[in-house]
């Protein structure tokens, strides 16, 4: 599902909804920009702020792991793509996850290794990943949610659930569907895997069918406003399972204790039958209006990209009666994150919020304590005590890293 479709849906909702009781806290923008780096960064970097203001930056596109000073400049190389050194990054994906104190776990997809990076940027030790088959889910931050650490010995990440429909009779096709995921904890010492909970995904209903002749076919039925769940790991190691159906959080503490907090106030928007029908018709029209192919130039080479197949869309009656509080993960914007002060930042739906994301900030008790909208062009990357780190583009169009005061 492509981002332009969600932008179109947001525009439709402005005209098609009825306001309910709004949250008691108005949206506001972030505080003062405290520092902006001079070294260029990509839009999709993965960062790990340290307690003294230095920042470890993982750039998967350049395949570099860099440690910036407190001014967010003067990076030193922790890992790069030079195979002749002791700092080889690898050819596959990698991610960084906060570990004990100011140390960091660098998880490398190519070597199936977990490197412990100490506060000085040196590799302190290396050990094998807890489960090699799950390496993709540990090294794709924002796509599968941000892996975290429970403060003891558990690495927490999202693992898809694949439902398999048994064939009915000889020669009948086998059907696979993926509409949910498990959140699991992998012990980095014993490699034991425990399931923490489950979340709903289902931005679209994708069915893969394997026929008796071995041929594979895929059919996608898109739901433009699905009701989904999200998740993140709080600063105390607790896992927050954020429920989109009634907008509350189920908590799982590092010791396994489970609890639920009250519903979070939200300006629910009612979708009338006519609004649902108009939404479906508009989405079909958007796909039909796109060109059959698009020609682009990559590294000086012209490439022609064919238009993706026009998906089927659910019937209007299958859409929810109220606009969900948040939608499917759309990296790098729409993914829940936990700040350094014990709060969970939940990206919320609303008119105009797709280009300038807004977040409901919820504390460990599940209470709404703040509502923050980013400035245009800002992408939220991570947190330090009382601050948030964002990427943006400077006057020359170069991506830069900034530290911004939350209040």
Can you give keywords for this protein?
single chain, 407 residues, mainly beta, seven-stranded mixed sheet, five-stranded mixed sheet, globular, disordered N terminus
Brief sketch in words of this structure:
The chain is mostly beta strands and 407 residues long. It has helices spanning 3-16, 135-138, 273-289, and strands at 17-19, 28-29, 33-36, 46-49, 55-59, 64-68, 76-79, 94-98, 104-108, 113-117, 123-128, 148-149, 154-165, 174-187, 193-200, 204-210, 216-222, 230-233, 239-243, 248-252, 258-260, 269-271, 293-298, 301-306, 312-313, 337-338, 344-347, 358-362, 368-373, 379-384, 387-393, 399-405.
Account of the protein in words:
This protein is mainly beta and 407 residues long. The chain has a domain at 1-29 and 152-373. It has three helices and 32 strands. It has helices at residues 3-16, 135-138, 273-289, and strands at 17-19, 28-29, 33-36, 46-49, 55-59, 64-68, 76-79, 94-98, 104-108, 113-117, 123-128, 148-149, 154-165, 174-187, 193-200, 204-210, 216-222, 230-233, 239-243, 248-252, 258-260, 269-271, 293-298, 301-306, 312-313, 337-338, 344-347, 358-362, 368-373, 379-384, 387-393, 399-405. The strands form eight sheets. Strands 12, 13, 14, 15, 16, 17 and 25 form a seven-stranded mixed sheet that branches. A five-stranded mixed sheet has the order 2-29-28-27-26, with no helix packed on it. A hairpin with a 4-residue loop joins strand 12 and strand 13. The longest helix is centred in the last third of the chain and has 17 residues, at 273-289. The protein starts with a helix and ends with a strand. The model is unreliable at 1-8 and 10-19 (pLDDT under 50).
């Amino acid at each position: 599902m492509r981002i332009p479709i969600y932008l179109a849906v947001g525009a439709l909702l402005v005209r098609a909804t009825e306001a309910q009781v709004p949250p008691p806290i108005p949206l506001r923008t972030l505080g003062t920009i405290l520092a902006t780096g001079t070294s260029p960064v990509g839009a999709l970097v993965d960062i790990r702020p340290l307690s003294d203001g230095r920042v470890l930056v993982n750039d998967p596109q350049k395949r570099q792991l860099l440690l910036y000073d407190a001014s967010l400049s003067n990076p030193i190389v922790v890992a790069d793509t030079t195979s002749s050194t002791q700092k080889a990054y690898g050819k596959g994906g990698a991610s960084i996850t906060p570990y004990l104190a100011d140390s960091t776990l660098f998880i490398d997809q190519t070597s199936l290794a977990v490197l412990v990076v100490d506060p000085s940027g040196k590799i302190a030790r290396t050990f094998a990943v807890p489960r090699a088959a799950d390496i993709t889910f540990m090294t794709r931050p924002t796509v599968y949610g941000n892996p975290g650490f429970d403060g003891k010995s558990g690495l927490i990440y999202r693992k898809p659930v694949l439902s398999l429909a048994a064939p009915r009779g000889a020669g009948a096709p086998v059907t696979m569907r993926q509409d949910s995921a498990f959140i699991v904890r992998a012990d980095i010492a014993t490699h034991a895997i425990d399931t923490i909970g489950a979340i709903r995904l289902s931005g679209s209903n994708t069915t893969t069918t394997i026929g008796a002749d071995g041929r594979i076919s895929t059919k996608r039925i898109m739901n433009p406003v699905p009701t989904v769940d999200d998740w993140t790991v709080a600063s105390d190691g607790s896992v927050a399972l954020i429920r989109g159906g009634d907008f509350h959080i189920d908590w799982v503490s590092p010791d396994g204790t489970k609890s639920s907090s009250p519903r979070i106030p939200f300006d629910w928007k009612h979708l009338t039958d006519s609004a649902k029908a108009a939404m479906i018709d508009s989405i079909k029209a958007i796909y039909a209006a796109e060109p059959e192919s698009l020609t682009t130039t990559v590294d000086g080479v012209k490439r022609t990209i064919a238009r993706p197949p026009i998906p089927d869309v659910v019937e209007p009656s299958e859409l929810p009666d109220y606009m969900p509080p948040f939608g499917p993960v759309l990296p790098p914007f729409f993914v829940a994150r936990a700040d350094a002060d014990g709060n969970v930042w939940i990206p919320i739906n609303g008119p105009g919020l797709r280009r300038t994301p807004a977040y409901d900030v919820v504390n460990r008790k599940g209470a709404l304590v703040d509502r923050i909208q980013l400035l245009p062009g800002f992408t939220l990357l991570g947190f330090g005590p009382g601050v948030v780190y964002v990427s943006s583009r400077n006057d020359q169009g170069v991506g830069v890293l900034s530290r911004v005061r939350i209040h």
